[in-house]
Design brief:
The structure holds two protein chains of two kinds.
Chain A: H1 6-37, H2 44-84, H3 92-136
Helix pairs in contact in A: 1-2, 1-3, 2-3
Chain B: H1 11-49, H2 56-97, H3 102-138
Classes of the chains: A mainly alpha, B mainly alpha.
Chain lengths: ~140, ~140
């Protein structure tokens, strides 16, 4: 039987793992949207913004996602070890690690929300331009 | 996650549980605002892809996504936001007058959380299917 609180922390860790899967899937889709609509963004500021999004997308989908996945994996291993030797180990280290991970995930969630809002705005400009082109053709 | 803290009738002991539920409520309000923003973008995307899909099955699928986007954006999410705001104002009144039964409020919070979690899953399913559908259009 897990001590009170640890099952909830384990569940939260599983939720992060699931969120990570969804983010990866979304980021891959955004990458394809950028490839598809990037050509309709030709003003200097738009190109600069698009490059910024490409950079962030690349950073999120490789570096950050991999680093988060590794940290979450290690955190689960830590819990496994804690459970095996529960009587001899202090769980405070695990809890500290969990809180640090929670802060990192939460910070990324906030950043990712802004990223999506801004990316939608930019892609909508491309979509409107593509629509105008179609109407004129 | 629904807070499990027991409620009593004094302001001091009510507050921690209420604060956690208030925080959750704000989180949901923020999530619903993002869903609305996303659906607006999906609508643009669907409009752009309308010309690319000519087959009967594709048209049917487009109609399906169109209906869901309109339904979620125009009805479901607005209704959820209304419920969240009501829930928040009930909380504000409870904190001012302490005339709210903690258990009643906790129960209402649990019901609303279940409803929002269920919608979140439905919404995620829509997104997954929609992304897959749009990707097929990239190659047409």
């Amino acid at each position: 039987m897990l001590p009170t609180g640890l099952p909830e922390l384990h569940q939260q860790t599983n939720e992060w793992r699931s969120d990570l899967g969804l983010w990866k899937q979304e980021l891959a889709f955004f990458g394809r949207l950028i490839d598809q609509y990037g050509k309709d963004l030709c003003l200097r500021d738009e190109v600069r913004e698009l490059n910024h999004f490409r950079f962030l997308l690349n950073y999120y989908s490789s570096d950050l996602m991999n680093s988060l996945a590794a940290r979450i994996g290690n955190h689960e291993v830590h819990l496994g070890l804690l459970m095996k030797e529960l009587e001899r180990q202090d769980e405070s280290g695990y809890r500290t690690e969990h809180n640090a991970l929670a802060r990192q995930v939460q910070a990324f969630e906030q950043e990712y929300l802004c990223f999506k809002n801004e990316l939608y705005g930019l892609l909508e400009k491309a979509l409107n331009r593509s629509k105008t082109k179609m109407e004129q053709a | 996650m629904i807070p499990t803290m027991p409620f009593t009738s004094t302001r001091q002991t009510l507050q921690p549980g209420f604060i956690e539920m208030h925080r959750q409520c704000l989180g949901w309000l923020s999530a619903t605002a993002l869903w609305k923003r996303e659906l607006k973008f999906f609508q643009h995307l669907l409009d752009d892809f309308a010309q690319r899909f000519a087959g009967v099955e594709d048209k049917k699928e487009m109609d399906h996504f169109q209906n869901l986007i309109l339904y979620y954006q125009g009805e479901v999410i607005d209704e959820l936001r209304r419920k969240l705001r009501d829930h928040e104002s009930r909380l504000a009144k409870a904190l001012q007058r302490i005339n709210e039964s903690g258990l009643d409020y906790q129960e209402a919070h649990g019901t609303l959380t279940t409803e929002l979690s269920a919608f979140e899953n439905q919404y995620q399913e829509l997104k997954n299917n929609f992304f897959g559908f749009i990707e097929t259009g990239f190659h047409q």
